[in-house]
Amino acid sequence: MKIKAKNVFALVAVVLGLALLYYFLGRKLISGFENESTFTLYYATWCPHCKDVKPVFEQWMASKGGSIQANGKTVKLAIVEESDMPAGTNVKGFPTFKLGNKECDAARNPAAWEQWLNANA
C-alpha cells in the first residue's frame, strides 16, 4: 500500500488545525477568569493546602450565587485547576487567589476574601 504525500500533508494539516482550534478555544474559555472582574482560586489537586481551602471557596461561591458585590462592582467567583490553566498564567504557588493580575494575600476564609475584595476591586 502506497501512501501519497498529498494525503499525508492533508492529514497533518487537519490534525494541526484541530489542535490549534482546541488550544485557542480552551484558552479563550479559561482566560476569561483572568480579568479585572473575576476573583479566581487557582489550585492543584496534589496540594494539601488546596484540599483544605477548595471546599471552603466552593461553599462560599455557591452561597453567593457565583458572584459578589465588592466596592460597588460585581465580581465573579471562579476556580481553575492547575491542569486547566492557560500558558502564561502567572501563578507561582498553590493555592493562589487573584483578581485580574492582583494576587490576594488575605487569610484563607470568606470574611478575609470579602474584605480584600472591597479594598481591591
Helix and strand layout, with pairings?
Blueprint: H1 5-31, E1 38-43, H2 48-63, E2 67-70, E3 73-81, E4 96-99, E5 102-103, H3 110-120
Parallel strand pairs: 1-3
Antiparallel strand pairs: 1-4, 2-3, 4-5
Report on this structure.
By secondary structure, the protein is an alpha+beta fold. The chain folds into 2 domains: 1-31; 33-120, Glutaredoxin. It contains 3 helices and 5 strands. The protein has helices spanning 5-31, 48-63, 110-120, and strands at 38-43, 67-70, 73-81, 96-99, 102-103. Strands 2-3-1-4-5 form a 5-stranded mixed sheet. A hairpin with a 2-residue loop joins strand 2 (67-70) and strand 3 (73-81). The chain is elongated and about 70 Å long. The N and C termini lie far apart (64 Å). The model is unreliable at 18-32 (pLDDT under 50).
Strand content: 15-25%
Q: What kind of sheet is the major sheet?
A: 5 strands, mixed
Q: What's the mean pLDDT score?
A: 82
What is the CATH architecture assignment of the largest domain? 3-Layer(aba) Sandwich
Reported by name, the CATH topology of the largest domain is: Glutaredoxin
